[in-house]
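yo

u said u wanted the structure for the complex thing, so here. seqs first:
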Amino acid sequence: MLKFQIIFILTLFITSINQVYSQQNPFFTPNEPKDSVQVEKLEKNSDQTLEKRKNFKFSVFNKFIKQNARLQKKIKDKFSTIAKSYNNSGSVKALVMVFLLSFLYGIFHSLGPGHGKVFIFSYMLTENPKIIKAIYISYLIATVHAISGMVVSLIIIYSLRTFSAASASITNASDFISQISFALITGIGIYLLIKAIRPKKHSHSHDHNKLNKLPFIPFILSVGIVPCPGTVIIVTFLASIGLLSVGLFSVFFIILGMGITISVIGLISLFSKRFVQKIASLKLKNYDIIYRGVSIFGASLLVFFGILFLIGSRS
Amino acid sequence: MTKTGLKILLFALMLCLSSKVKSHPHVFVDVDMTIEFNDNGLYKLHIRFYFDDMFSENLKLGFDKNKNRVFDPDEVEELRLNAFSNLANYNYFIHFIHKEKELEFSKASDFNAIIKDGKVIYSFELDIDLPVNNSEEKYRLACYDDSYYVDALLNKENIKFLNKEGYTFSYKIEEDKSQAYYFEQLYPECIFLSVKKEL
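structre next:
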């Protein structure tokens, strides 16, 4: 089982490298550069897209996403100016500012999608860890996420310096796979939702604490192993201006910032659940109903995000 | 942990692995746009992308081979092939809508890349070729990356019109909800343009 987990994690990391550097970046070329577009195919897709968009006007995140993006840009611009200033002057104050901005970037960057927040949210709803363990898990995810980004950065820097830029271009093949995975995610979420709604018959006795001790370290690694593109950009940028060692140290501060955001999300989830349980436990007859309700809510959330991502990936 | 809890975790894990979920903005681009007319109507779009510092350094690292802080002609060509031509698959981020049909751009022309004050600037042209007569025509023009890997922001002060003599036009810039993107959560800034030929 351990061997399988190791192979799974390594495979995930290796296949993620492509995604991080080129596959998602619209500017970089797939195997064959394309100067022309298949007009017929895209016209059809365009009509469908416009039709779909006309009927879908629900957004709660528009302002938040834009403001977060503007903030990230400000931090990155400031980061760039100060890093170049340190490069010219060697000032300790500038170096401290670089690390402080890495820390802030870690906080705000991980507010965006990804970074294991759905996982930590779900984990806190299904488990009941102590606060210190919740923070530990959050920082574990942040550490793995940023370190894998750092490793990918080193690979990219080496390949850009050693080979031509064309060799850093990689095949683009994820759209169809993403749609299939979103569909599967939604299907599994529906299955879990049904299981949570159905009342459970429990006639035999056993110690639930000893059942299925989750080897969660491999799970944490699996969640975090996909490299953080934000970390890649920061480290490759610093390397490109001759500050590779500073870039490697800045990863530590990115982890500190990222861990705060993920911890806050996890603790909000944990405290919310404990609050609900406390209220429910006051009236014992409602306890099971409330507890099932929390599980249903957790599974529903995953179904919702699965559908949202599926619709988004097909638009 | 119960089996159901374990399955929920696995489920959440699969969600986290989605490549689409990772696509939040990592590149920031400020966009200048000039709309050119000719005797027939709308002729071309002249576009400039001003990249953020960090991505500019990435581009310089990969393509300024002789480190002279200038993109030489062979470097510009390599940039065009390896760090620009793929935008054709994204319609160069340009969403030009007329009568509820989105215009597809088969090819960009006159591509150039320069380094100014340390930042990389792309310039290129797209053919529109839409006739305009003396009845008012309405258009919507926005610039955004559907995947939101790139955050493209229109420079409202730098929207210009070229060879506009003989045409009456007006425009306003506001969010266009009908073009919501990125899991339908973002509304792009859009130029709402009305044009007609003068009699």
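The helical segments of chain B are 3-16, 53-63, 73-83. The CA atoms of residues 180 and 187 of chain B lie 5 Å apart.
cya
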